[in-house]
DNA sequence: GCTTGACCTTCCAGTTGCTGGAAGCTCTAT
DNA sequence: ATAGAGCTTCCAGCAACTGGAAGGTCAAGC
């Protein structure tokens, strides 16, 4: 299967698939003309990557997860550890964004937002 | 005032301050020896940037906010619009992260995380 | 006056995860 | 034969810094 069909299959842009090959994640075979040729195994990995990236795992996390995916004897604890660390990171980001939102929301509400120059948002930033 | 004192004053690393000068945000005067020399006006702007970046505004947003800050006749509506757009973006990110968290949290909880190979997280990613 | 060490300067490269574009080869249909 | 789509590689750029190298400057201590 050529790259554009693989792209449709796994839901990733062809550019991204080539990039994943560049960084050694999924390396398909090649046809005589030099075209990439994806088999079912490659497609599985690409779909795996698409899902894992969609869940916000870093590419390096994905690299490890992929190797664990391919290791039939891996310990589930290894996988769980990566996922838990990522989960904690997400929780942290959510809390940070919520705090930002609260501050910003207060500022936006306090600003009448008309043609007059007085602006509590700018005043706060400049304080 | 030289750059390292300015860095202490505004709470930004010297590297970042130089970077802000590179991209045209805050351009201090120079002493005879070529050293940067920050005056009160420069420091105000740097503090402004530090606060605005801390609230998650992009550098380009900061550029606009800074020009509005310097424009005594700006309409508060202009400022409010930028802040509101940013706020909406933050809300969107929070919702996205919360959805990720829910999915990931379920996966982590369903994985016993021991030495055995069976792993619901990997299974889900590979499905 | 000399040395040492802490500053300062500029410039270049790397980070993350792609994405766009140019130049050129290949395939398919007309 | 030729047009157009699709493939290849490689290079550059995005955001927002950050690290490091090479070299100039300054203040203190001897």
Provide a short characterization of the protein structure.
The structure is a homodimer of 127-residue chains. With 127 residues, chain A is mainly alpha-helical. Helices cover 68% and strands 3% of the residues of chain A.
Secondary-structure map with pairings?
2 copies of one chain form a homodimer.
Chain A: H1 3-10, H2 14-22, E1 29-30, E2 36-37, H3 40-54, H4 59-70, H5 76-110, H6 120-126
Antiparallel strand pairs in A: 1-2
The first copy, chain A, binds a DNA duplex (30 and 30 nucleotides) through helix 2.
Uncertain segments of chain A? none
| Widest sheet: strand ordering of chain A | 1-2
Which two chains touch over the largest interface? A-B, 52 and 52 residues
% residues in beta strands of chain A: under 5%
Q: Give the overall shape of chain A.
A: elongated
Q: State the distance separating the first and last CA atoms of chain A.
A: 60 Å
CATH level 1 name of the largest domain in chain A: Mainly Alpha
Structural class by SSE content of chain A:
mainly alpha
- Helical residue percent band of chain A: 55-70%
Count of all domains of chain A: 2
> In CATH terms, what is the architecture of the largest domain in chain A?
Orthogonal Bundle
CATH topology of the largest domain in chain A: Multidrug-efflux Transporter Regulator, Chain: A, Domain 2
**Count of separate DSSP helical elements of chain A:** 6
What's the assembly state of these chains?
Answer: homodimer
Number of E strands of chain A: 2
């Amino acid at each position: 299967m050529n790259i554009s069909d693989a792209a449709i299959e796994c839901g990733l842009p062809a550019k991204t698939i080539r990039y994943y090959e560049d960084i050694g994640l999924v390396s398909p075979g090649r046809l005589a003309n030099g075209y990439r040729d994806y088999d079912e195994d490659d497609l599985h990995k690409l779909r795996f990557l698409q899902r894992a990236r969609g869940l916000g795992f870093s590419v390096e996390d994905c690299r490890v997860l992929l190797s664990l995916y391919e290791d039939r004897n891996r310990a589930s604890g290894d996988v769980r550890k990566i996922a838990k660390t990522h989960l904690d990171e997400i929780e942290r980001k959510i809390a940070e964004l919520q705090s930002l939102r609260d501050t910003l929301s207060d500022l936006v509400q306090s600003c009448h937002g008309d043609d007059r120059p007085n602006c509590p948002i700018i005043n706060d930033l400049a304080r």
